[in-house]
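Module 6 notes. Inverse folding takes a fixed backbone as the condition and produces residue identities as the prediction. Think of it as a translation problem where the source language is geometry and the target language is the twenty amino acids. Below is one complete input and output pair. Work through it position by position during the lab.
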């Protein structure tokens, strides 16, 4: 707690410690497996979003058909 007065931020939102700018030079490097996993997770997330939209559209169709609103197609009884 006593070293909090050594940290600072300038008008350009740069972080300083004891008057010296803090630089982080480490790049994010992913392995082949991590890239593959990220791609699979992205595709699964996209498919889950599309499935959610389809489910919502189906639920809206059922809701409107029950109230005799025919904006969407209703099943034949």
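Target side of the pair, the amino acids:
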């Amino acid at each position: 707690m006593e070293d909090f007065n050594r940290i600072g931020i300038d008008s350009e939102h740069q972080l300083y410690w004891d008057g010296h700018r803090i630089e982080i030079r480490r790049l994010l490097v992913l392995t082949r497996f991590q890239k593959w996993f990220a791609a699979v997770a992205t595709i699964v997330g996209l498919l889950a979003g599309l499935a959610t939209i389809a489910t919502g559209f189906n639920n809206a169709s059922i809701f409107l058909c029950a109230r005799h609103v025919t904006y969407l197609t209703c099943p034949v009884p």
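Reference fact for the lab report: The CA atoms of residues 43 and 49 lie 10 Å apart.
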